[in-house]
Amino acid sequence: MLTKKVIKKFAFSTVLTILAVPAMGQDLLAKQAPIDRKMKAVDSMALHRLIQAESYESPAADLYNDWNNRYAHKASVLPDTFRIDLRGFCMPTTSRVLTSNFGARWGRQHKGLDIKVYIGDTIRAAFSGKVRIVRYEGKGYGKYVVIRHYNGLETIYGHMSKQLVTEEQEVRAGNPIGLGGNTGRSTGSHLHFETRLCGIALNPALMFDFKNQDVVSDFYVFRKSTYNHESAEATRLRGVGGKAVNGDLDIPQQSYASAQPASSKKVRAHATRFHKVAKGETLSSIARKRGMTVSAICKLNHIKANTRIRAGQILRYN
């Protein structure tokens, strides 16, 4: 009889223990939930503060007077010079294959670069900013996204199979914004990538080196007076079929003048000379090679003596 009581007690205790385990687990989850929510809130607040800080110092605030979700690009007053901060970038795709250059193509102007991607490949925001447009255009960009960045640029990502962001959404450089595709006016899956300043298309090759998955420099200084010449040179170096050559990049000034509007043609007697930075070169070694001072090179390129230069960067030296 005593044995039966002991067995019953033991069985009853075991059942209670088994029933208590899930309850204890639920209690732990219940206690953890507020902590998880707090951590998520802290992360969100930190990100929001970071975005606010970037937005507060945004050069874009001085360039654009309005926020229009109707037009992918609408030209406004373009400054004679403007310095664009390229630091903190993210390549919009890991693809290194360019299929079409910026400029004249098939009797019309191609306003961006085409990069080979496959349907479903991740497309990322090039810089931090705010999504201005998420739309579909059947006879043009297809499914596309426009982002206004704090550095003053706007980027356009076209022909995607899917958009992963919404209008007015703030994004960080590297955030997924869409998937590669073949929508709109497209003859094969690729990313059509544009960089615009005040609505005017700039050659992405001036800033992005897709073959090396990097930006050309920490900063790009846009100048109306030399833009066409610099754009043509960027395409030669980093476009489809482009071949980078270290050393002199002498371009006859006549070719620059012919690319300018008739009202601004000024053919100079000598060619502007450029140096393409080789691996391991410094401002001092380049200055010695070109028979100049570091300060003179810095002045010509609007940089400082302690500016970090990169292999592939183009420096003017006369």
Describe this structure in words.
- The chain is α+β, with helices and mostly antiparallel strands and 318 residues long.
- 30% of the residues lie in helices and 26% in strands.
- The chain contains six helices and 20 strands.
- The chain has helices at 2-56, 60-63, 227-238, 253-259, 283-290, 294-301, and strands at 81-85, 98-100, 103-105, 108-110, 113-116, 122-124, 129-137, 142-149, 153-160, 162-163, 170-171, 176-179, 190-197, 200-202, 208-209, 214-215, 219-223, 247-248, 274-276, 314-316.
- A hairpin with a 2-residue loop joins strand 3 and strand 4.
- The longest helix has 55 residues, at 2-56.
- The relative contact order is 0.11.
**Structural shape:** globular
* Radius of gyration, CA atoms, in whole angstroms: 28 Å
What is the residue-mean pLDDT, rounded to a whole number?
79
State the secondary-structure class: alpha+beta
